[in-house]
Amino acid sequence: MMTEREKMLAGELYAAYDPELVAMRRRARLMMEEYNRTSVTEPERRRAILTELFGKVGPSVEIEPPFYVDYGTHIIADDGLYMNTGCVILDCAEVRIGRQAFFAPYVQILAAHHPVEANARCAGPELASPVTIGNRVWVGGGAIICPGVTIGDDTVIGAGSVVVKDVPSGVVAAGNPCRVIRELKPGSTG
Predict the structure, then answer these.
(1) Does residue 189 carry a pLDDT above 60?
(2) pTM > 0.90: yes or no
(3) What is the CATH number for 77?
């Protein structure tokens, strides 16, 4: 029989109030409280917290406090990640972030979701779907990246966008729902 965490990571309905998951979220909250109290003058302390919190973190990662996660351990962040203030990652499923990805303030990456049917939703079990963000992606302020989405390499997501479907590589996409506005030429600066 699968544990609730195994169900969560497999994309099946799971009980978020399971003691193991509650303990994992508590651990993450305590680590975020500590991280969010750090100063720009404490890069080693920040690095140590992120290394312990994330499943994997590249050698050069900068995240401006405040910053919020559900678990942290399901986040795989490659080298050169920059997240501005107020970003949120609900990592109930794996969240992969590629090299040199940049996030403006208040971006939300949401792997968590709930059943659409009211009776199933109100019964309590939740769902999660992985999110993948490619290399050299720029995400504008206040954008929301929804569960199960993949954003391709070298793509720009406009501020305030709601990304509900996959976005290909090498494009500028924006809106609610987010859609491709134009393709970028290889090697262009936008």
Answers:
(1) no
(2) yes
(3) 2.160.10.10
